[in-house]
Known about the structure:
By secondary structure, this protein is of the alpha+beta class. It has two domains: about 5-85; about 90-200, no CATH class. The chain has helices at about 5-25, 35-60, 60-65, 70-85, 90-115, and strands spanning about 125-130, 140-145, 150-160, 165-170, 190-195, 200. A six-stranded antiparallel β-sheet has the order 1-2-3-4-6-5, with helices on one face. The model has no long low-confidence stretch (mean pLDDT about 80).
Amino acid sequence: MPSVRGSLTAALAICAVTLLIAIVEPSMADWPSGLVEMVLLPLAALLFIGCTVWSLTQLLRIRRDGARFAGPFLACAATLALMTYAPLEDVYLQFDFHWRRADREAIVTRVGRGELKPNVGYNANLIALDDAGPYVSLGNEIVIDEADEGTYVLFLTARGPRRSISGFLRVPSGADPTKFFEFDDRPPRRLVRYDKGWFFVAN
């Protein structure tokens, strides 16, 4: 029979891995979809479900061995509550914004100087960045919009069906983020100001 310390350590480890995957899942968009959707996420889900079921069996030991055997179940319950109610996506976005901000500012400066121009034949607003450079956007591609007030630069965090996108939008000084060309047909579904000139947007 495992010790109470071993039981709790195992449960905490599985819960920590589950939470970590839940937080960084948006960053997996560049990974092969089969690896994420058919291997990693189902494996993590099965591991967590197995841990939860196992932790329930530990509750049967409370009467004989003490309340400390409720620890694994409480860890699983707390993890489930965090995944259900905590703003894990916002935690990831805050981290991503601050972690990559300096690199993104450098890209914006290069776009403003004309060093980076659209270079993808099928899309006149798309710039494929050098793979040797820092990773700043999904697929390391950025979307630009040359407007009268200046150049809008979108660093993608996700792409979805029907041209749905989300990401960090750098707007020209004093410009309106809703004037970005991707919002010509409809206003952004989500618009969150992160700092002066920086917004998280989703259509």
